[in-house]
Write a structure and sequence with these properties.
The protein has a single domain, classed as TolB, C-terminal domain (Neuraminidase, 6 Propeller). The radius of gyration is 18 Å and the shape is globular. It has 306 residues and is mainly beta. The strands form six sheets. The chain has a five-stranded antiparallel β-sheet, with no helix packed on it. It has a four-stranded antiparallel β-sheet with strand order 3-4-5-6, with no helix packed on it. 0% of the residues lie in helices and 43% in strands. The termini are close together.
Length: 306
């Protein structure tokens, strides 16, 4: 089964990424690829991290220390000495950095902002990204709709945001990524509740909106001149990353998110080449696309470039 268009066409790899007997997915949220094309899936099951080879064989699983029922954001960053995983738990307010084997090497302290957070106004981090200088950016997508900047050692530097639709204000800044092409690095923020992307400088200054051809963007993955992002409203969108123009919608189903009970629909509804609630996306070295969906018992799809 194929999906896409003449500019970007893929086919579904049926049965990719099965867990061993005795393990089950929870809600599948974050998904990343390492330099060897192993695919890491963060989800709400136990254990909550599952790793697969490029061909779909299960490699290993473990439970991430400090990440529990609300496992959410997952980001892989290549640093001078190794590759590391960064993760969030939006229920516990946890942000951790681990090795590829799950050893925790850094924990971020929640931002101490008394005018923003209180017992009633919680901090609920959903995603994060790392800049070339090592600074870490965390989105509080489910809490008070702020972005927090830390240095590589975990010291808080700067915060900006708040709830609204004006430049610099957000409604669920769900995902964040650093775009490295262009004249300078830029922060792309999936302002999901406003159905748009906001672009900032690395110091948090607003630059522009992107609001065409998207419907609740969740997160980002940049790969060889393309930007991939899951639209929670039942498709994965591909942009040309040079000018933020549409290349393709993958697996689009404009009926799925309108169904009663969405995102947890009857199993007979799902089709291999159609998405219901895509939440995370990554791309391997050969350009194949992996999609994680926000569904109670998880769903992972591999799309091979054709």
């Amino acid at each position: 089964m194929q999906t896409g268009n003449r500019m970007f066409r893929t086919e579904v790899v049926n049965g990719w990424g099965r867990l061993p007997e005795g393990q089950t997915f929870g809600y599948t949220h974050g998904i990343v690829a390492d330099s060897e094309d192993n695919i890491y899936v963060l989800h709400t099951g136990v254990p909550n991290m599952s790793v697969f080879s490029r061909s779909g064989e299960w490699v290993k699983s473990w439970t991430v220390e400090g990440i529990e029922d609300n496992a959410h954001g997952l980001y892989l960053h290549k640093e001078h000495d190794a590759e590391y995983l960064y993760m969030t738990d939006c229920g516990l307010g946890t942000v951790v950095k681990t090795t590829l084997n799950g050893e925790v090497v850094l924990r971020l302290t929640p931002p101490d902002l008394g005018d923003v957070y209180s017992d009633e106004k919680k901090y609920k981090p959903t995603d994060l990204a790392v800049a070339p200088n090592g600074d870490i950016y965390v989105t509080d997508g489910y809490g008070q709709h702020w972005i927090h900047q830390y240095n590589a050692q975990g010291d808080h530097i700067h915060s900006w945001g708040g709830t609204g639709s004006e430049p610099g204000l957000m409604k669920c800044p769900h995902g964040i990524s650093v775009k490295l092409t262009g004249s300078e690095p830029e922060l792309y923020v999936a302002d999901r509740g406003n159905h748009r992307i906001q672009v900032f400088t690395l110091s948090g200054d607003f630059k522009r909106f992107i609001d065409n051809d998207m419907d609740m963007p969740c997160s980002f993955y940049f790969h060889e001149g393309l930007m991939f992002f899951p639209d929670l409203h039942s498709r994965v969108t591909v942009f040309n990353s040079e000018d933020d123009s549409l290349v393709a919608h993958l697996g689009e189903d404009q009926l799925a998110y309108k169904q009663q009970g969405w995102p947890n629909l009857p199993k007979e509804y799902y089709r291999d080449n159609r998405f219901s609630s895509p939440h995370g996306v990554c791309v391997d070295s050969l350009g194949d696309v992996y999609v994680a969906e926000w569904i109670i018992d998880g769903r992972i799809t591999k799309l091979r470039r054709v």
